[in-house]
């Protein structure tokens, strides 16, 4: 599973989450007590931050062609990756797309990616 976003632990269970001021929105794919349906397969519950056991930002990182990346998504046998090495000549040599100033992204064959791991930041 490749994640890139907030997660919160509440009552011993981890949820996708979204901080909202003094509150934390918890998300799950199935109905549950206190969770309201926001769309098919997506339920939310809003809790005060003081009730949350842990809140962290989780992202999936990897190495591709010897360079550091974060994984943004997956499609079939490809990973959407964003270069985190900060060196424009390297990004250019890898033919990465300029997504924004200093932000370079591309599609990497999943079979070529190594060191795939989840990190809490």
TrEMBL record:
This is Uncharacterized protein. It comes from the Bacteria. It comes from Micromonospora trifolii.
């Amino acid at each position: 599973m490749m994640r890139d976003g907030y997660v919160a632990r509440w009552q011993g269970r981890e949820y996708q989450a979204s901080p909202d001021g003094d509150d934390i929105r918890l998300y799950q794919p199935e109905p549950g007590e206190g969770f309201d349906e926001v769309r098919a397969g997506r339920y939310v519950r809003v809790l005060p931050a003081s009730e949350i056991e842990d809140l962290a930002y989780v992202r999936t990182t990897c190495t591709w062609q010897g360079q550091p990346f974060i994984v943004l998504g997956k499609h079939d046998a490809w990973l959407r990756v964003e270069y985190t090495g900060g060196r424009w000549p390297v990004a250019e040599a890898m033919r990465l797309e300029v997504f924004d100033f200093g932000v370079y992204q591309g599609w990497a064959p999943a079979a070529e990616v190594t060191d795939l791991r989840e990190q809490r930041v």
